Amino acid sequence: RPGTFWRLFLRVARMLDNQLWLCSNPSMQVRDAWVNECLNMTQHGFDACMVDRWTRLPKTHPSLPAAVLKEWGAARDIATTQLSVAMKKQNAYLIGGGLNDDTDGSSDPGWGYSSNVKTLMDLAAAGKGILASLSVGFTQSQFESQLAAFLVGCGEHHYIGAGSWTTSHTSRAGVAWHPEYDRPLGRPLSLAKRINATAWQRQFAHGVEATYDENRRTGVINWNAF
């Protein structure tokens, strides 16, 4: 319940500055609160949950000694495993971790900053998904480049979005649907192939060809390549 959660939060959290709070997640109550918050979503029309800052160590802060960060990280891993087990029992999907943890998929909210094709391929090979979000304020050419990079490396359960990072559940503000999303793509004909030392290329069943140069960080999509 929201009221119970916030009473717990205010009791165990401390404010580090005017923007950053630190929850004492070595506390079992705090870990259970985080786990149940995610599980509750799957009981109200959602089949997945993304945990964001919780899956990483707190931002570096002068008031946080190394011992606190170590304890926080260990407790985070305990809670992540606990949540992963519970989500699997509900046949729900957990997003927010990395390649070598208990989550089902990774979250990359800064895809537009550094598109790493190899990371996508590694996640796909490990059977892990990704939720990639482009950084806000991109141009059309930047959008095409980042979408091309995504298409070159993506696998099953890999998703990309481009719009505002935040919006409310009662508003469509910041929600963008790009015309490229409606174009026929088809299944990939193969994994991406190197076409030179820095560029990748991949073809899809509906005649689409995506090319991305990691060095130049530019990409193109030919929607009628063959």
List the helices and strands and how they pair.
Blueprint: H1 2-12, E1 13-15, E2 21-23, H2 28-41, E3 48-50, H3 66-89, E4 93-97, E5 105-108, H4 117-125, E6 129-133, H5 140-153, E7 158-161, E8 193-194, E9 199-204, E10 208-213, E11 218-222
Parallel strand pairs: 3-4, 4-5, 5-6, 6-7
Antiparallel strand pairs: 1-2, 8-9, 9-10, 10-11
Helix pairs in contact: 2-3, 4-5
Largest sheet: 5 strands, parallel
Task: Classify the beta-strand content into a percent band.
Answer: 15-25%
Order of helices and strands: HEEHEHEEHEHEEEEE
Strand order of the largest sheet: 3-4-5-6-7
The total count of strands amounts to 11
Structural class: alpha/beta
Helix content: 25-40%
Coarse morphology: elongated
Total helical segments: 5
Instruction: State Rg.
Output: 20 Å
The end-to-end distance, rounded to whole angstroms, is: 55 Å
The average pLDDT score comes to: 80
Spans of at least 5 consecutive residues with low confidence: none
